[in-house]
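Issue 218. Parser rejects a valid record. Input:
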Amino acid sequence: MSLCLALCLWISVGANAQQPPAPQQQQQQQRPQAVQRPEAEQPQAVQRPQSAPTPTPPIEFPADIVLAPNRATYDMKLAVARPNSGIVEVNGNMVLETVDSCDGWEIKQRIKLTFLRNDGEEFETDSSFTSYESKDGLQLRFSVRNAQNDEVEEELRGRADLEALGGKGRASFTLPEVRSFELPAGTLFPTTHMALVIKHAREGDKSVSYRVFDGARLDGAFQVNAVIGHSPRPAPGTPPVRGDIGLLRNQPSWGVRFAFFANGDQGAQPEYELALDLLGNGIARSMLLDYGDFAVKANLVQIQALPRPKC
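Output the parser choked on:
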């Protein structure tokens, strides 16, 4: 489980779905109303501290956190839509692979979603993300492809390197344009960040904040605040997970809510939020992606253990 999941889902789900609805045609058939969550159940934003978070000195890679190589399949549906969202239905799936390649972690992610808007228009998104992150947390290679209705809308490709864990670095893109910029000291890559969040959770910490870069956007890193709490209970009617369910047993778990703030943004509200039911081996049993106007729920439906290499 890598935080690139959240950033790519923002591109796949949030950016596409929040386009203005097409003009309604005359004699439009009545469409189902958007699901509305009671006021008491509205998700609470994870607020950024009024002053910058105290740096975590020094940052060391959490070698004691053992991530599980796996292929996870999630069923995705609309959880809630506010009246101004224009979205009445979302359905689709996500396949997320975490592959151990001896010196690094390979992440392969594919998300396919179908949206229905309140004007009756339906559209499909297809997003893929692949990355390689070295296990020392210093190197990242990434590739992103986003399509809507079978037309490619965006492709990103590049790499990033850090001088040291917790030190400054540089990101370089080759697509959609040649671009290079400095990553400030304290920037982390997504798999390292997730391992550190798990380490903080194991140690009983309730909140943590890091700057994270994964290549899913051209405008630099996010400031990511995480609030760590108790693991949520499965919702009634949640289907059982198929496959190698031993990966889900005998693992500590937490409910973790991430808030994503754009680079340099000092506003009180995040761009979006992600809630995970997170296990100690990095697998998420469920996710809730909240974009403010609407939220999408992803439930794990199948899990497959992938072999560890003989290095």
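Fixed in the parser; the record now loads. Confidence is low (pLDDT under 50) at residues 20-56.
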